[in-house]
């Protein structure tokens, strides 16, 4: 009987294609919006994720997310270094100076000042040049997207000069830093150099990066640092999640995306449900004839579920394919770089689509189950 | 002899609705339908023919009385067994054919076998063979929309007979057909469906087909008015409007 169910489904080409298109549209919207949403939120912790040398970030007790910094005292670094279980601790500066090209094009940038001696936190993914050259005077490494923003349509090239807060800076490398939450250039330089670029507050120590000794867990060490210094200490992963939660709580991003996702779900359920229901109603006489002939309700239920699963699977596959194509096209655009179709979103959307088609088929199944086979004799 | 009786109705009543809106569609129907015969249930619209057919086919339960089909009190069977009984023993021909529009003639004809779990290839092969017997060998792969009314009814007849049921119930099988086509369908029905081990019940108010009947049961107002076991009615292929049929038959 399965082939009868499938032929009934594909026989009405207009409704069949309409159902597939609806599910595909719903899938595309859900996967697209949830992936962009997740991708944007992941960006809030990009600069934390890019620091692969240290496992722990120490900051002012009131710091809630990466961009919100209050300078620590220089002695805090020493205090952290003195805590048992700390293998090493280095300082990190974060500021937002203005970068300007000699042509006058400018942009606010993330400026990360790395420990002069160790260059801990330097970008490991380089596109051009070398991060080791940061030891040279006035040197900086800028990310590829930031370079494109300051030098649009120009080939990547090192040893170019820009101004940062009116201080001369020489580009010695171009990195492939993860995209930040806002599309600002990401500039890495030495701590002393960064302070020189920005230099307003009395102290400039934004974060202390800490690496635990072998055998000491990062989680345990964060608790120890907090207890002994009164500072806030978070593992890299915790700090990334802090940033995500902060933006979730304090911005309109979730509401904005939530509305789009809700609309996609509602449109999916209503349109797919209605189309599928109409499709079943139009076949009611045929289902009635089948019931009269001796096809059981259970068999008819399976036929309808098979029809729903078929359009669901086809629609989901086409929608996912379109979504993957969308992200493949936009992956290398500077504003959308790093935004990809995440497998978690694909699975979540698959479950949502399953719910949509189950709801749609339940309504239709109910109508068929209550149908009296004797109806088939009524013309 | 009871062994010759395929369907036995005794005091069958059927009511729809309740309270003030209660309508009695059948009012104590007694009827015997014999194997090897074509029994016509005739009467004006709304007289209860189709309700009686539905009760006999196990599609409706009685409000009172007793119906035995092939020796079984079908409405006393549990739900699933009732369906399986119907699937195995009954064949249906509907007024509007009720073919599945997406299936070919052969596939439509094979539906009862497919429902019984017969492999698709075998079921469709069997349907093609029967369609050929009914003169449809060159139309087995056509969709219902590509078939004439008479051809569609022949496909419906294939679907009704393919599993060799012991009781065939037909609801107005010629109502949607012109005189010649109706005549041809009834000839096929008489030739292919009526068998010593099978009973055929046809609901109709088309007097053109009365000549095919072995027994004619006349109904009105939910009752059997008369049962004529030797109707001796010549086959009349001349078209007579249905209101005149009713006037002539029930005058």
Itemize the secondary structure elements and their pairings.
The complex is a heterodimer of chains A (379) and B (251).
Chain A: H1 2-11, H2 13-43, H3 46-49, E1 56-59, H4 74-81, E2 86-95, E3 98-101, E4 106-108, E5 110-114, E6 126-129, E7 139-143, H5 144-150, E8 160-164, E9 167-175, E10 186-190, H6 191-198, E11 207-212, H7 218-229, E12 232-235, H8 236-250, H9 253-282, H10 284-293, H11 297-330, H12 343-369
Parallel strand pairs in A: 5-10, 7-9
Antiparallel strand pairs in A: 1-11, 1-12, 2-5, 2-11, 3-4, 3-8, 6-9, 7-10, 8-9
Chain B: E1 5-16, E2 23-34, E3 38-42, H1 49-56, E4 64-69, H2 79-89, E5 90-93, H3 105-115, H4 120-133, H5 149-161, E6 167-171, H6 179-193, E7 199-204, E8 215-220, E9 223-228, H7 242-250
Parallel strand pairs in B: 3-7, 3-8, 5-6, 6-7
Antiparallel strand pairs in B: 1-2, 1-4, 8-9
Helix pairs in contact in B: 3-4, 3-5, 5-6
Describe the fold and architecture:
The complex is a heterodimer of chains A (379) and B (251). The model of chain A has no long low-confidence stretch (mean pLDDT 87). Chain A is elongated and about 95 Å long. Chain A contains 12 helices and 12 strands. Chain A is α+β, with helices and mostly antiparallel strands and 379 residues long. In chain A, strands 1, 2, 3, 4, 5, 6, 7, 8, 9, 10, 11 and 12 form a 12-stranded mixed beta sheet that branches. By secondary structure, chain B is α/β, with parallel strands linked by helices. Chain B has helices at residues 49-56, 79-89, 105-115, 120-133, 149-161, 179-193, 242-250; strands spanning 5-16, 23-34, 38-42, 64-69, 90-93, 167-171, 199-204, 215-220, 223-228. In chain B, the strands form 2 sheets. A 6-stranded mixed beta sheet of chain B has the order 5-6-7-3-8-9. Chain B has a 3-stranded antiparallel beta sheet with strand order 2-1-4, with helices on one face. The interface between A and B is medium-sized, with 27 and 31 residues.
């Amino acid at each position: 009987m399965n082939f009868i169910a499938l032929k009934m489904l594909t026989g009405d080409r207009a409704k069949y294609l309409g159902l597939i298109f609806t599910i595909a549209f719903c899938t595309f919207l859900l996967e697209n919006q949830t992936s962009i949403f997740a991708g944007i939120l992941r960006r809030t912790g990009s600069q934390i994720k890019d620091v692969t040398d240290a496992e722990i970030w120490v900051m002012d007790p009131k710091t809630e997310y990466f961009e919100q910094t209050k300078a620590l005292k220089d002695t805090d670094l020493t205090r952290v270094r003195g805590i048992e279980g700390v293998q090493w601790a280095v300082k990190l500066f974060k500021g937002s100076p203005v970068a300007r090209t000699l042509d006058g094009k400018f942009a606010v940038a993330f400026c990360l000042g790395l420990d002069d001696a160790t260059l801990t936190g330097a970008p490991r993914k380089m596109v051009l040049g070398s991060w080791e050259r940061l030891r040279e005077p006035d040197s900086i490494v800028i990310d590829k997207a930031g370079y494109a923003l300051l030098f649009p349509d120009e080939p990547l090239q090192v040893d170019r000069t820009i101004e940062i807060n009116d201080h001369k800076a020489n580009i010695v490398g171009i990195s492939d830093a993860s995209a930040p939450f806002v599309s600002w250039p990401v500039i890495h330089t030495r701590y002393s150099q960064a302070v020189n670029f920005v230099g307003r507050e009395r102290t400039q120590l934004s974060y202390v990066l800490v690496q635990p000794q072998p055998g000491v867990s990062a989680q345990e060490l964060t608790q120890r640092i907090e207890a002994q210094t009164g500072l806030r200490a978070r593992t890299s992963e915790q700090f990334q999640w802090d940033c995500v939660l902060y933006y979730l709580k304090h911005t309109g991003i979730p509401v904005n995306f939530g509305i789009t996702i809700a609309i996609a779900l509602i449109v999916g359920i209503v349109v797919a449900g209605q189309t599928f229901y109409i499709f079943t109603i139009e076949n009611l006489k045929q289902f009635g004839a089948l019931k009269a002939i001796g096809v059981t309700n259970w068999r008819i239920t399976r036929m309808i579920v098979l029809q729903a699963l078929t359009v669901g699977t086809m629609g989901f596959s086409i929608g996912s394919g379109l979504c993957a194509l969308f992200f493949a096209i936009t992956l290398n655009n500077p504003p959308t770089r790093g935004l990809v179709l995440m497998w978690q979103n694909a699975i979540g959307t698959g479950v949502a689509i399953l719910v949509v088609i189950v709801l749609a088929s339940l309504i239709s199944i109910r109508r068929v189950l209550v149908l009296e086979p004797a109806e088939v004799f009524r013309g | 002899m009871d062994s010759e009786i395929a369907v036995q109705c005794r005091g069958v009543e059927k009511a729809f609705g309740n309270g003030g809106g209660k309508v009695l569609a059948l009012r104590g129907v007694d009827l015997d339908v014999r194997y090897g015969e074509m029994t016509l249930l005739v009467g004006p619209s709304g007289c209860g023919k189709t309700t009686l057919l539905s009760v006999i086919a196990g599609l409706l339960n009685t409000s009172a009385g007793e119906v035995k089909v092939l020796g079984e009190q079908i409405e006393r069977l549990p739900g699933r067994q009732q369906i399986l009984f119907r699937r195995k023993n009954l064949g249906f021909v509907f007024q509007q054919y009720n073919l599945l529009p997406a299936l070919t003639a052969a596939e439509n004809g094979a539906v009862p076998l497919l429902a019984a779990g017969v492999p698709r290839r075998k079921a469709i092969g069997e349907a093609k063979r029967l369609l050929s017997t009914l003169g449809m060998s060159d139309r087995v792969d056509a969709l219902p929309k590509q078939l004439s009314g008479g051809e569609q009814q022949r496909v419906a007849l294939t679907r009704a007979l393919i599993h060799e049921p012991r009781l065939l119930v037909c609801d107005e099988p010629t109502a949607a057909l012109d005189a010649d086509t109706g005549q041809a369908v009834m000839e096929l029905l008489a030739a292919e469906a009526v068998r010593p081990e099978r009973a055929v019940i046809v609901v109709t108010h088309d007097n053109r087909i009365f000549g095919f009947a072995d027994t004619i049961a006349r109904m009105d107002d939910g009752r059997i008015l008369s049962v004529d076991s030797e109707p001796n009615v010549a086959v009349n292929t001349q078209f007579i409007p249905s209101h005149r049929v009713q006037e002539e038959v029930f005058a």
